[in-house]
């Protein structure tokens, strides 16, 4: 069975040319998930263009931000995020930012300049976008923002075992689940924390007291 990105690419082939920008956005997202960064960049050029609907432009620039983050270029990712914010500012379109991946939301929360310039994006009641922490007047860097997404009970349990330095196989045996399930939980933890390594997730968890009962 085809995965979600492949299915999305198949579906857009049936759409007419009138939905070019929307199609380009879907294609860009799908190609990025499939690891085709160059193909995603080509598709996003049209989705981010000035002729595209405003909502599509914002989403396109957010996907481009994710593409740059995936490629390791934080400055370019920040540029894409800044453009998305500028387009959304007049209409105060918050939803695309609240529904963005955790890594993008953390980039905004942790960037004091962008957060100060666009406080409207944090005006929510659902709690999906925490307000940035105030910058210290002493000149010290602001503390890192806590992870945006909440862990499930199982993910929290797996995180505790990671802190105990258990291997994937040992965690599976301890929790009476499969190794593949443990790996899925670990991937979700890393995604929610916006990190790529287990030790970085454990370090963040300790920093924000997420390992306490």
Overview of this structure, please?
The chain is mainly α. It has two domains: 4-122; 153-207, Orthogonal Bundle (Arc Repressor Mutant, subunit A). Helix content is 61%, strand content 0%. It has twelve helices and no strands. Helix 2 (20-33) packs parallel to helix 4, helix 4 (54-70) packs antiparallel against helix 5 (74-89) and helix 9 crosses helix 11. It starts with a helix and ends in a 6-residue tail after the last helix. The model is unreliable at 14-18 (pLDDT under 50).
Average pLDDT metric: 78
Number of helices: 12
| Portion in strands | under 5%
Quickly count the domains: 2
Order of helices and strands: HHHHHHHHHHHH
**Helical proportion, percent range:** 55-70%
Derived from helix and strand composition plus strand pairing, the structural class reads mainly alpha
Radius of gyration: 19 Å
Q: Biggest sheet, in brief?
A: none
Global outline: globular
Low-confidence residue ranges: 14-18
Q: Termini distance?
A: 41 Å
The counted number of beta strands is: 0
Describe the secondary structure blueprint for this structure.
Blueprint: H1 4-12, H2 20-33, H3 37-47, H4 54-70, H5 74-89, H6 95-98, H7 102-110, H8 112-117, H9 153-163, H10 168-175, H11 179-193, H12 198-207
Compose a concise summary of this entry.
This protein has helices at 4-12, 20-33, 37-47, 54-70, 74-89, 95-98, 102-110, 112-117, 153-163, 168-175, 179-193, 198-207.
Name the descriptors.
213 residues, mainly alpha, Arc Repressor Mutant, subunit A, 2 domains, 61% helix
